[in-house]
Design a protein that fits this description.
about 290 residues, single chain, 3-stranded antiparallel β-sheet, mainly alpha
Length: about 290
């Protein structure tokens, strides 16, 4: 479903045109976002993608990145794309955290430890990433990040298929705390550097280390609030956030977040992990070579 909608947006069968262009169709009404007129079909496609992205966020982790991809196909300002997508991630993180707190994953001793350590180190990583932004080529980093995402998918699949060969994961131990801290920092750096991160990276890394799937998704929701909030603040200063698009995308995305939370508790962990692996291996090349 993701691929069909994104392909339609990319191919222009559902699309956008610059304001003032003589080729604007009068068959469908259009609204202006960021200097681009989006027709009704495009807006509906964005709503559907946003809903499915919300499902992905709380079911398997990766999800919000598909909103970024969809916006990149219809908007021309990179800052507006990242700023608007990041703002919606704050809302999905809050709702995702609330529903997982309700179901208990964030109220266990291990869940609390993972949540706190992941969020603090993620914020530190984001500050570091922002600081080295001018020193690293964004193009090179995107290639490395894409390979990293694909590798995380392979590791997730391998662990589910063959096991880790080691002991169980426990974030309450010193070793577990160090591992969670390393994941948080590793996720925060690309968040600060490129405006990506959160569940799309945290969940597969935690799962690959041996953390249970649903608790990993739960704690990643909390971390995403801090990471997205840090990034969005910078885009707000640059006036690169569209409030209209936040509402258009945010509402169906939040509905999807609740649906995804229900899916995570009704579908077997093994199927969720395999779905996560497939999404990551598919997503990695896109990030690297977009």
């Amino acid at each position: 479903m993701y691929s069909v909608l994104l392909a339609s947006l990319s191919a222009g069968t559902i699309g956008s045109v610059p304001l003032g262009s003589p080729t604007v169709s009068v068959a469908l009404p259009a609204l202006a976002f960021g200097g681009v007129a989006l027709d009704t079909a495009t807006l509906l496609a964005l709503v559907v993608v946003a809903f499915l992205a919300g499902v992905g966020i709380t079911a398997i982790g990766p999800g919000g990145v598909f909103v970024t991809i969809a916006l990149s196909l219809v908007l021309v300002r990179p800052g507006l794309i990242a700023g608007t997508a990041g703002a919606t991630n704050i809302a999905t993180g809050i709702v995702g955290s609330a529903v997982y707190a309700h179901s208990g994953e964030l109220r266990t001793e291990q869940g609390k430890r993972m949540m706190i350590v992941l969020s603090i180190t993620g914020l530190i990583g984001a500050l570091v990433g922002a600081g080295v932004n001018a020193l690293v080529s964004a193009e090179l980093f995107e290639v490395l990040l894409g390979g990293f995402v694909a590798l995380a998918g392979v590791l997730t699949w391998y662990r589910e298929r063959y096991g880790s060969g080691g002991g169980g994961f426990d974030a309450r131990t010193r070793r577990g705390t160090v591992l969670v801290a390393a994941v948080g920092f590793a996720v925060g750096v690309p968040a600060g550097l490129l405006g990506v991160g959160g569940p799309v990276l945290a969940v597969p890394l935690l799962v690959a280390l041996g953390a249970p799937m649903v608790p990993a998704v739960a704690v990643a929701q909390v971390q995403s609030i801090f990471i997205a909030g840090f990034a969005t603040a910078g885009y707000l200063v640059r006036d690169a956030v569209s409030l209209w698009l936040i509402v258009l995308i945010g509402v169906p995305e939040l509905i999807g977040v609740v649906v995804g939370w229900q899916v995570a508790h009704r579908v077997s962990a093994r199927r969720l992990k395999l779905a996560l692996a497939v999404v990551l291996v598919t997503l990695g090349p896109y990030i690297a070579f977009q």
